[in-house]
């Protein structure tokens, strides 16, 4: 993997010149609009980057965006990868390692997820303070590259406390309904059954989704601070469960996206301060 990382990183560096991103951003389902806030300097299609996995979802565009957001140089993944697409955990997290090798110092992640906590509502935001992984594999399984990170990385603070508090403060000052909570990662692609939603709530989940955790594990492995935020696009409350379509999920994510964008933009702008 290290050889592929080096060759892919070099390919990207050859095309972005002396641009060195300080922040990496992963944009989730229906949340690619943050790109409109970036002063774009360069765009690379995943399909043109050697060894770079390609998103198979029609609503994930598959571009690396290089530019400036809030005065900070960023690289944004417009379109993420999922385990249910058939990729290995190492492939899913390959872009995070690339962003680290390009120079990022902090990783920001967004996703669309389902609410488990009955006090949360569809369209609300939730800053992730911790997670529970129910996915069947871990991206760190296999031989460890000590230059990347330790064999047994600590996960006592997978999401940076200081960034969580700043994010909540930004939301409060802008009258945005934003909770903090525990994210449960499942495999997907099917949504959960009534019994599964009940189980996920019992074990401590506030929201459930099919992404994020692999990237966060690898970021922690490499010593990258992480901030992650979910748009709650549906409600997994067993007593009042209703069918939901991907079109509805994308619509709710799109409606809530400006609020998420404001929080991310102010947080990133504040890094330099």
From TrEMBL:
<dbReference type="GO" id="GO:0005737">
    <property type="term" value="C:cytoplasm"/>
</dbReference>
<comment type="pathway">
    <text>Purine metabolism; purine nucleoside salvage.</text>
</comment>
<feature type="domain" description="Nucleoside phosphorylase">
    <location>
        <begin position="23"/>
        <end position="269"/>
    </location>
</feature>
<dbReference type="InterPro" id="IPR011270">
    <property type="entry name" value="Pur_Nuc_Pase_Ino/Guo-sp"/>
</dbReference>
<keyword id="KW-0808">Transferase</keyword>
<comment type="similarity">
    <text>Belongs to the PNP/MTAP phosphorylase family.</text>
</comment>
<dbReference type="InterPro" id="IPR035994">
    <property type="entry name" value="Nucleoside_phosphorylase_sf"/>
</dbReference>
<dbReference type="InterPro" id="IPR011268">
    <property type="entry name" value="Purine_phosphorylase"/>
</dbReference>
<comment type="function">
    <text>The purine nucleoside phosphorylases catalyze the phosphorolytic breakdown of the N-glycosidic bond in the beta-(deoxy)ribonucleoside molecules, with the formation of the corresponding free purine bases and pentose-1-phosphate.</text>
</comment>
<dbReference type="GO" id="GO:0009116">
    <property type="term" value="P:nucleoside metabolic process"/>
</dbReference>
<dbReference type="GO" id="GO:0004731">
    <property type="term" value="F:purine-nucleoside phosphorylase activity"/>
</dbReference>
<keyword id="KW-0328">Glycosyltransferase</keyword>
<dbReference type="Pfam" id="PF01048">
    <property type="entry name" value="PNP_UDP_1"/>
</dbReference>
<protein>
    <recommendedName>
        <fullName>Purine nucleoside phosphorylase</fullName>
        <ecNumber>2.4.2.1</ecNumber>
    </recommendedName>
</protein>
<dbReference type="InterPro" id="IPR000845">
    <property type="entry name" value="Nucleoside_phosphorylase_d"/>
</dbReference>
